[in-house]
Each structure stands twice: as C-alpha cells, then as structure tokens.
Amino acid sequence: MLRMSKLAKTYRTDTVKTRALCPFDLEVKQGEFVAVVGPSGSGKTTFLNITGLLENASEGEYWLDGLEVSTLGDKAKSRLRNEKIGFIFQSFNLIPELNIYDNVEMPLRYRKLSTVQRKQRVEEALEQVGLASRQKHFPAQLSGGQQQRVAIARALAGSPAFLLADEPTGNLDSKMADGVMSLLKEINKQGTTIIMVTHDLDQATQASRIIEVKDGVISEVEHCAQEIA
Ligand SMILES: Nc1ncnc2c1ncn2[C@@H]1O[C@H](COP(=O)(O)OP(=O)(O)OP(=O)(O)O)[C@@H](O)[C@H]1O
C-alpha cells in the first residue's frame, strides 16, 4: 500500500520557482488499478516519478509499504525501488544492443539471485507476455507492441508490488494498444497494483480509479468503473 500525506513538489532554479504539485493526500491499496489523467504539463509525470522514487517530494510524507521514504538514504531508496516497483514508459526504453533475454534480465542483476533463479524469472516473465520464443531477438526485430511487452516482462521479472506506467500505449496503434491494455489488466488481476498515466479516456475508464492532475492539483474523479476483465 502507498500513502501520501500533504505531499508537494516545487522545482527551483536561481530565478524561477515552479509549483509542479500542490499538497495532496492519497492512498492506493494493494490490487488497485489507478489511471492518472490531465492536460500536458499538469504534473502527471512528476507525480509518477515521485511515486516511483525517481524524484523526491519537496514537502510532506510518503509511506511505501510501511516505510516513510524521506527518512531513507539514497541506497535504501534504490533498493526499495528495485524490489517494489516496476516501470514501463511510452518509449519502451529497451537497450538496443541487448537481446530480449538480456533486457529482461537486466534489473535482476541488482538482486541477490543465482543465474538459475534469474533464468527462471526471465523465462516466466516472457511466457507471461507471450514472447517466450523471442529470447534471442533484438528490440529492433520486434513490433512496437512486442517491444512494450518485453518492457512489461522486464518490469514483471522483479515481481514488483507496484507497476508504474507512463503512457504505455502512447507510441502504439490502437490494436497494439488494446493488446497492451489487456495484458496490464490481466497483470492487475493477478495482484499487482498499477498506476498508469494515460491521455486515453477509454483506457482510463477501464481502471478501478481515476485521478486527475490539473495545474498541479490532484483530485479523484468519480466514475463508474467498467468491470476489469
Ligand atoms: N526538472 C524540472 N525542472 C523544472 N520544472 C520542471 C521539471 N520537471 C517538470 N517541470 C515542470 O513541472 C510541471 C509539470 O510537469 P510534468 O512533466 O509532470 O507534466 P505532465 O502532466 O507529465 O505533462 P505531459 O503530459 O506533457 O507529459 C511543468 O510545468 C513542467 O514544466
């Protein structure tokens, strides 16, 4: 579970101060699927980056599975991120020089796992996204939808409690986007909490909750969730 209390973010340079997120309270329980919507520049990525421990908040408290994040040093924070959080991005962020197997294995190299354990996890994750037969391919040899599936496998291989997605279907045509969305719903059904930034309102209504960010103000949008199938 994650809980944010009076959390806020201000970016400061010598001359300019930008209030990217106004103070907000939020609780996300294990197993929820949260869509984050809002206009460009409203603070969605900032929110996701703070949630994923990629950036620090400037005020407030952030509790992640019982740990208050601001009390942790950089090393402890990195460990927590590696163990609890998986990321997927609009641009997939695969390493072009590495084959699919090595891309998925990459985050596991920071864990205390044997080669055999790593292999098992990589194979299971690729199986889960339907790409078990593509281990030796390189990213450029796959379609966009398949590359995003590899990125999802890479996130899943670490068995994260939270999967954070920043417009995961933004670079995909609608058919591929539907495939990725179905996969995310299936992963959520199996217990992984998902927080996903999206511009697609149809996708947002498939989530169990919608949060809107507007000019740095975060609010809950009441909606009648479609059943997550
Ligand atoms: N590193 C930074 N330094 C200064 N200002 C920043 C920084 N990162 C973001 N901002 C500002 O914070 C605000 C929120 O940016 P953010 O990237 O979170 O918006 P967004 O909703 O994700 O936008 P988009 O949908 O276009 O990706 C913007 O005004 C942006 O210019």
Keywords:
229 residues; alpha/beta; Rossmann fold; 4-stranded antiparallel beta sheet; 7 helices; globular; binds adenosine-5'-triphosphate; ABC transporter ATP-binding protein
Could you explain the architecture of this structure?
Helix content is 32%, strand content 27%. It is an alpha/beta fold. The chain has a domain of 156 residues: P-loop containing nucleotide triphosphate hydrolases (Rossmann fold, 3-Layer(aba) Sandwich). It binds adenosine-5'-triphosphate. The site of adenosine-5'-triphosphate has 11 residues, from strand 2 and helix 1.
Helix/strand layout:
Blueprint: E1 2-12, E2 17-28, E3 33-37, H1 44-51, E4 59-64, E5 67-68, H2 74-84, E6 85-89, H3 100-105, H4 115-128, H5 144-157, E7 162-166, H6 174-189, E8 193-197, H7 201-204, E9 209-214, E10 217-221
Parallel strand pairs: 3-8, 3-9, 6-7, 7-8
Antiparallel strand pairs: 1-2, 1-4, 4-5, 9-10
The structure holds adenosine-5'-triphosphate.
The site of adenosine-5'-triphosphate has 11 residues, from strand 2 and helix 1.
Number of strands: 10
Strand content: 25-35%
Structural class: alpha/beta
Mean pLDDT: 93
Q: Could you state the order of secondary-structure elements as H and E?
A: EEEHEEHEHHHEHEHEE
Bin the helical content.
Answer: 25-40%
Bound molecules: adenosine-5'-triphosphate
Tell me the strand order in the biggest sheet.
6-7-8-3-9-10
Poorly predicted residue ranges: none
CATH superfamily of the domain at 31-57 and 73-201: P-loop containing nucleotide triphosphate hydrolases
Domain ABC transporter: 2-228
GO molecular function, one term: ATP binding
InterPro entries: AAA+_ATPase (IPR003593), ABC_transporter-like_ATP-bd (IPR003439), ABC_transporter-like_CS (IPR017871), MacB-like_ATP-bd (IPR017911), P-loop_NTPase (IPR027417)
Family: Belongs to the ABC transporter superfamily.
